[in-house]
Amino acid sequence: MTQPDDQRWMALALSLGKRGLGQTWPNPAVGCVIVKGGRLLARGWTQAGGRPHAEQAALAQLAKGAAKGATAYVTLEPCSHTGQTPPCASALVAAGVARVVVATGDPDPRVSGRGLAMLREAGIEVVTGVLEAEARRDQQGFLLRITEGRPFLTLKLASSFDGRIATATGESQWITGPQARQQVQALRASHDAVMVGGSTARQDFPSLTLRGMGDRQQPVRVVISAELNVPTHGPLAEDETGAPVWLVHGPDAAPSAQEFWRKRGATLVSVGAEPSGLDLSAALQALAQAGLTRVLCEGGGSLAASLLSAGLVDQVVGFTAGVMLGANGLPSLGALQYRALDDAPRFTLLGSSRIGEDVMHVWRRVGD
């Protein structure tokens, strides 16, 4: 049975879990708080690299016996299997908690319902579904990887008021202001990987690394290039941040290019081709199989259009500047072959805010 403060404590656990987004893959980013007599005893979240889990991190803060009779609030069903660490459900039982409140279940076949059953068999009261919609939104990357075999994909678009990302001569730095660009760094920090197409890699020589975000694990840098036509000089080939480089290419990529990038320590991912280009569904499935749960696509326009056409975009984050570049400017999206308005993908607005002199708006795919 729910209690009056359950939502308040679960909201805190959810806020803690968000700290792990982009840091814990392939594990989910979970939050946990332990409360007794209305007083917060401990809090934890899944640590970088996925371990220790949130429950273990919280319990480690307490002296033996301190959690006896307490309530644990956990944003995802506690694991029930032994991997590199013992089951979190067993740890909660051993700690003597009297009640566990869980936001949402874990569809992983190794867990799915077993963690809750383990707690109930030990005589612990279990409450589920508290702030479940919020938890599922935070966990969508992990959930999609388990249930659909692909990561959650965010498309980032930074454009002029009329939807252009460069002038007719190709000038693009900078359409949006410094505050918006810093917000993009925060967006990168909450994703496991940052992805661009081969044309963006050739034209912009992007580093795709985190800057100004403190001591955080760098995201994987993913480039989609059918022919593996990626610059062999510049940040992707030469920087020393240690950020991994994964190159997704087609079956006809030149062996010499593959050899070059292997020697640079890059991970090569080969997928099949379609008449329109690489099989992007297969590409995302391969990224998920390698462990990625959340991918941020930063362009270019052709890749973005292809992802939208394939129904693979879950979230769009737009940064709109108060400048207009006209019809001869470079559009933010490539051609989309929709004959009717009803064929176009629909997104619902989650929120908008002013970022410096620009506007940021966040949209989720209708139905998610």
From TrEMBL:
Binds 1 zinc ion. Its cofactor is Zn(2+). It comes from the Bacteria. InterPro entries: APOBEC/CMP_deaminase_Zn-bd, CMP_dCMP_dom, Cytidine_deaminase-like, DHFR-like_dom_sf, Eubact_RibD, RibD_C, RibDG_C, Riboflavin_Biosynth_HTPR. Its EC number is 3.5.4.26, 1.1.1.193. SUPFAM superfamilies: Cytidine deaminase-like (SSF53927), Dihydrofolate reductase-like (SSF53597). This is Riboflavin biosynthesis protein RibD. It comes from Litoreibacter janthinus.
